[in-house]
């Protein structure tokens, strides 16, 4: 993936070092946009704005935008996958499912650490299923407690 990014950058503006390294801030800007969209989808535009601003100003991101490494496209695809996952949970759509699959696939081409997205989503799914089962089992107890607190029998 990093070779494709370098090739695309050199095709756009030449083989100079500055041109090739310029792709890193562009990819981080796109990642910030995806973080903004994720924050807006979960909370509101203010949270999205501040999340993207904090991400863009973190010293590690600032330093990394001077370099072109495999981490830059990985972070972009990770944030795209996060946004797709959030939107897929909010409203099930084939478009967001495809976006999630493409983001994970391209992220795996960038760096194998993208597999953690898959592992985290499986872990979350199992956690939510176990939690739902526990809540369902506790529902009669809560109903009885609620009824006795309100004086109903």
Distinctive features:
single chain, about 150 residues, mainly alpha, elongated
What does this protein structure show overall?
By secondary structure, this protein is mostly helical. The protein has one domain. Helices cover 84% and strands 0% of the residues. It contains 8 helices and no strands. It is elongated. The model has no long low-confidence stretch (mean pLDDT 86).
Question: Can you lay out the helices and strands and say which pair or pack?
Answer:
Elements: H1 2-13, H2 17-21, H3 23-42, H4 45-57, H5 59-64, H6 71-90, H7 94-110, H8 115-149
Q: Strand-residue fraction?
A: under 5%
Query: What's the quaternary structure here?
Result: single chain
Major sheet size, sense and barrel closure: none
Rg calc: 21 Å
Helix/strand order, N-terminal first: HHHHHHHH
Query: Uncertain segments of ≥5 residues (pLDDT<50)?
Result: none
Task: Count the DSSP helices.
Answer: 8
Number of strands: 0
Short description:
With 153 residues, the chain is an all-alpha fold. It has eight helices and no strands.
């Amino acid at each position: 993936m990093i070779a494709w990014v370098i090739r695309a950058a050199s095709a756009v503006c030449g083989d100079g070092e500055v041109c090739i390294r310029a792709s890193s801030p562009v990819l981080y800007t796109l990642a910030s946009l995806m973080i903004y969209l994720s924050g807006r989808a979960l909370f509101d535009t203010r949270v999205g704005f501040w999340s993207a601003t904090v991400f863009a100003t973190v010293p590690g991101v600032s330093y990394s935008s001077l370099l072109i490494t495999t981490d830059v496209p990985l972070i972009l695809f990770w944030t795209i996958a996060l946004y797709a996952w959030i939107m897929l949970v909010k409203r099930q759509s084939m478009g967001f499912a495809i976006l999630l699959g493409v983001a994970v696939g391209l992220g795996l081409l960038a760096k194998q650490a993208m597999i953690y997205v898959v592992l985290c989503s499986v872990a979350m799914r199992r956690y939510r299923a176990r939690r739902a089962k526990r809540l369902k089992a506790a529902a009669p107890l809560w109903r009885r407690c609620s009824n006795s607190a309100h004086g109903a029998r």
